[in-house]
Specification:
Elements (H helix, E strand, L loop, with lengths): L1 H5 L3 E4 L5 E7 L5 E9 L2 E9 L2 H4 L2
Antiparallel strand pairs: 1-2, 2-3, 3-4
Length: 58
């Protein structure tokens, strides 16, 4: 998850200003979808899965 976040190639803003979707490679190269929430305390990955097609086709 951290590898995909640190090496992402796409950043997608969401309707929630505190959440951002990042698309990046796993350590094996599989594209992952990572959701990061940011607030005054810092940033945390709250979701990770294989990237859905809608994030790969744009």
């Amino acid at each position: 998850m951290r590898h995909a976040y640190r090496n992402h190639w796409r950043r997608v803003e969401t309707d929630d200003a505190s959440r951002t979707v990042f698309i990046g490679p796993s350590t094996t190269g599989a594209p992952l979808e990572i959701v990061v929430v940011c607030d005054e305390a810092g940033a945390a990955i709250i979701h990770a899965m294989v990237a859905r097609r809608k994030f790969l086709e744009e």
